[in-house]
Amino acid sequence: MLTRPMHNDMPLMGTALQPAMLDQRGRQRRRRGWQRRILRGAIGIFGLLTLWAAMSEYYGLALILPPPWTVFHDIFDTLTLDYRSPWMYGPNIYQHLAASFARAIVGFTLAAAAAIPCGLLVGRSRAMREFLEPVIKLLYPIPGIAWIPLAILWFGLTDKAVIFVVFIAEFFPLFFNTEAGARAINPLIVDAARCYGARGFTLVWRVILPASIPYIITGMRIGLGGAWRMIVAAEMLAAKTGVGFLLMQARFQFRASDLMMAMILISVVGYATERLLVRTLERRTVAKWEVNLA
Amino acid sequence: MSMGARDVVIHAAGLSHAYESATGWSTTLHGFNLDIHKNEFLCILGPSGCGKSSFLRMLAGLLTPLDGALTVNGRKVIGPGLDRAIVFQEAALFPWLTAARNIGFGLEMAGWPRAAIRARVTELLHTVGLTEAAHRYPYQLSGGMRHRVAIARAWAMKDASVLLMDEPFSAVDAINRATLQDHLVHTWLAEPRTIVYVTHDIDEAVFLADRIAVMTPSPGRVGIEHTLTLPRPRDRDSAEAARLKAQLTEDLRRLRVPIEQMAGAT
């Protein structure tokens, strides 16, 4: 057999593979992708606004479907606290938003604090599953809003009532996702952990919890969105402040523009919260470990 | 027998195990006997499904035998313990820990002080040639590197007298496998331990083992044992190695027949 040496000493042609060039290519590609997404997203949003404006104008619905510019004016006035038409909702918008936000976060945090340990336990321990599963499965079909009257009876028209409803409603998505995550752990990882001495609480804290994180994050995303939605529903009935209260008042005053203003602010705050909280958690865990939902 | 004079670290007598599947009960081990000595490199060689992995899982404390006695250092095996370290067929690393933290995981659990863990991990990273990769996460490592981390994690357990290896390199490509085997022998010679190494690869067994226990297929037990006298470091292609490989191939073929007759007789 004739073996010939490879000619590794040939001069490299061009500069395409130099690190600086590759970096530049990567940056360029990412920037273009970003620009493309922004452009297409903007076109989508613009389409919706056009449809909205056309409906409003064509059918002459200014009273119940004010056109976008009226609503945007309203948003601007509200945010700058410089009202052209009288403000009829008590405290200013920031206080309403802050009240809602605080309730949502407290309710969500309590739900997570209860649901994640429960989910891990039920997912990993047969005894726990057999004890708790019937209880949880029986409570699950009761919608969150069905708890509002009872919450008012128990806590009155207070923050507690709203927080309680959020807690009840968001316990389930957090619980079911955590439990699914705890069950889906590769058994080999748990075997390895046990062989290297992890037991009991240490096993849960150091192995079961991090291994379930991808599912837990999904649960948090659903739960946080749900908490924000539930807040609005609960505040319509059980609060004297908050965006839900504001919405209900705007309906009583027949101010469609204020209604839509509040809805848009709910959307923006909800979206921003999700990005800030869940994405941060994701960046610090799943993205860093590069594990994906299988 | 000269072997009898050495300390027996692992003693298995009459181990039996079966599991229930959709088609009924299958026996994996039946009257499995084996003594393993201190600092011996023992390979258990057998075809897939002969129960060799079941034996290793029993040693690890992950599987309880239905019958028989199994002791490590004179103590009955009840559950996993830090006197045994294990390497699985898959690397089975913790994806949320860096290579260094993966290697130090067992030591952390054993309650070693931080500084001692750091020193030991640094030493092992060097041994398996991964010093550069210390702070990378498992997904940033190649398959071969992950297996090296898995081995280092087991090897880090200084107080574990037994190292269990369940076909650790069978999922690795041939070039990496040879390197990993070299690493393993090198490490073992520098820091002797009792190794129980399960494999279905004859070449691997001949390259690694002091003694090879050839298993009969299910129901599993040790059929034939070979004590190897080949000098180390071993030449994979020596005439003696070739002769032994031929012998083992023949053993594996021959062991298949009498077991069927035995099954008919009982």
Name the overall outline of chain A: flat
Seen as an oligomer or otherwise, the chain set is heterodimer
Assign the CATH superfamily of the largest domain in chain A: MetI-like
Q: Return the string of H and E elements of chain B.
A: EEEHEEEHHHEHEHEEH
Question: For the largest beta sheet of chain B, what order do the strands appear in spatially?
Answer: 6-7-8-3-9-10
Q: Tell me the series of helices and strands of chain A, N- to C-terminal.
A: HHHHHHHHHHH
CATH class categorisation of the largest domain in chain A:
Mainly Alpha
Rg of chain A over CA atoms, rounded to whole Å, is: 26 Å
Question: What does this 3D model show about the protein?
Answer:
The complex is a heterodimer of chains A (294) and B (266). Chain A is mainly α and 294 residues long. Helix content of chain A is 76%, strand content 0%. Chain A contains 11 helices and no strands. Chain A has helices at residues 19-58, 68-80, 93-124, 126-139, 148-155, 159-183, 187-195, 200-238, 243-252, 256-284, 286-289. The mean pLDDT of chain A is 89. With 266 residues, chain B is α/β, with parallel strands linked by helices. The model of chain B is unreliable at 1-5 and 262-266 (pLDDT under 50). Chain B contains 7 helices and 10 strands. Chain B is globular and about 50 Å long. Chain B has a 6-stranded mixed β-sheet with strand order 6-7-8-3-9-10, with helices on both faces. Chain B has a 4-stranded antiparallel β-sheet with strand order 2-1-4-5, covered by helices on one side. The longest helix of chain B is centred in the C-terminal third of the chain and has 27 residues, at 239-265. Classes of the chains: A mainly alpha (294), B alpha/beta (266). The interface between A and B is medium-sized, with 21 and 27 residues.
